[in-house]
Amino acid sequence: MKFIHVITVALVVAAMTTLAAKAQTNAGKKLVVREISLGKMPPMVTSGKPVVSPDNRRVAYRVMHGGKYCVALNGEAGKPYAVVEDLTFSPDGKKLAFVAKKGFRREVVVLDGEEGKEYQYVDIASLTFSPDSSRLAFIAAPLGGTNSFVVLGDKEGADYSGFQLADPDKPVMLFFSPDGRKLAYGAARETAEENYDYEVVIEGANRKGFPAPGPIIVHGFSPDSQHLAWSAKLPGKWQVVIDGKRSKEYDEIGLNTFRFSPDGMRWAYVARRTRKWLVVDKAHEGPGYDGISDLSLSVSAAGGRLAYVARRGEKQWVVVDGQEQAEYDGVDAGSLQFSPDGQHVAFSAMRDRQHFVVRDGKESEPYDGSRGVLFFSPDSQRLAYVADRGGRSRFVLDGIEGRDYEGMAEGWACFSPDSKHLAYGAIRDGKTAIVVDDQEIAQYWGNLGKLAFESTNRLSGVVTRIGDKFDVEIVRLEIEIPAR
């Protein structure tokens, strides 16, 4: 019966959507673009960008209605509340959750339009779906209570005074293991005035608690779900802890630097001892530097290689497998990455005010600037990046420059799974142009979410366009690249 209901709804939605298809030809290839309306945005949309589901099929946003707020999903407004916050889609894009305030100290989590239990408070940054989208976890405080707990599905955990207290600027985070079977978090109980007992909790088939010597930052599970890492703050020192086993003490830990290898057998992080920063590769300490970029630490997919950006004085180096590469005036730390097979490494750097991309030690021709957009194809053979010259931006693929634009749409660039096609969004005349294999196929008022391939020859994205009456319509694009 449920299956029939889903099909019926799908047919109704299909009948109501605007579906347009158009073919475009360039250099002997024919691309088909389908536009599916996901509804029109009313004029009273509140602050915050619309949230797009990972599968690019649903869009949610907050709307003011009669002095209250509601969540609109694909243009359909839901129940009004005093406040709505933290719109969150599940990884499969099929579920939507948010926090709603019903009144003074009365808050609920709304999942797919259904209200859950009322709480005095729900942490608006804590909504977390499991990787398989089957479970939702969040932090809440009971009505009339002073402590809070983690809610996992419909089960409430133990009471705590607070969660993950080592870094007040970092939002509280709940960590599911990649296999979805375990949930981890750092928590504290007040034992006396301003004195706390700290522990890391793993909720699973058997609940476990690991006592911690001080405030905690949880880094997360290894990709194989077998190991859990966190950092603990001691009086004047820090330690990294793996499955309860403590590392050496350091004066400081780069809290956003911890990395596991894909097999979970290797890990690395940045630490400071006295005035020098170093990379700890499992138990091995690298050389000390004046600084190491938090964003740069990279472990290859195969787990056998390690790279990072280090600074000594005013100069920077990329260190690959313990070996310093050429010296630069600056390195874009976020651009440093290995190819999927671990055989190649690339990054964006600057010397004498000129920017260039370095692949396996070989520098590209110089450019005026770089946007930090750089990525390998899935087969590791191709490299794409954005380069600026003369106030214009262009993608460079395999060393060949594409068309130049005013800029590039953030998050809108990807290779097809077979590495044969490159698609991206670019800015022309203030609008977003969709480009596939250097063919500009359409222009829209703006873009939302991310451009993504759904198969080797089909990709999707969500855009906006302005109607004749200046109304904003949200549109799902489906772009098909016929086989050669």
Short summary:
The protein has 1 helix and 49 strands.
Write up what this structure looks like:
By secondary structure, the chain is mainly beta. 3% of the residues lie in helices and 57% in strands. The chain contains one helix and 49 strands. The strands form eleven sheets. Strands 1-2-49-48-47 form a five-stranded antiparallel sheet, with no helix packed on it. The protein is flat. The two termini are 42 Å apart. Residues 1-27 have low confidence and may be disordered.
How would you summarize the topology of this molecule?
Elements: H1 2-16, E1 19-26, E2 29-41, E3 51-52, E4 59-65, E5 68-73, E6 76-77, E7 83-89, E8 96-103, E9 106-111, E10 114-115, E11 121-122, E12 128-129, E13 136-141, E14 149-152, E15 155-156, E16 162-163, E17 175-176, E18 183-192, E19 195-203, E20 208-212, E21 216-221, E22 228-234, E23 237-242, E24 245-246, E25 252-253, E26 259-260, E27 267-273, E28 276-281, E29 284-285, E30 291-292, E31 298-299, E32 306-312, E33 315-320, E34 323-328, E35 330-338, E36 345-351, E37 354-359, E38 362-363, E39 369-376, E40 383-389, E41 392-397, E42 400-405, E43 407-415, E44 422-428, E45 431-436, E46 439-444, E47 446-455, E48 458-466, E49 472-480
Antiparallel strand pairs: 1-2, 2-49, 3-4, 4-5, 5-6, 7-8, 8-9, 9-10, 11-13, 12-13, 13-14, 14-15, 16-18, 17-18, 18-19, 19-20, 21-22, 22-23, 23-24, 25-27, 26-27, 27-28, 28-29, 30-32, 31-32, 32-33, 33-34, 35-36, 36-37, 37-38, 39-40, 40-41, 41-42, 43-44, 44-45, 45-46, 47-48, 48-49
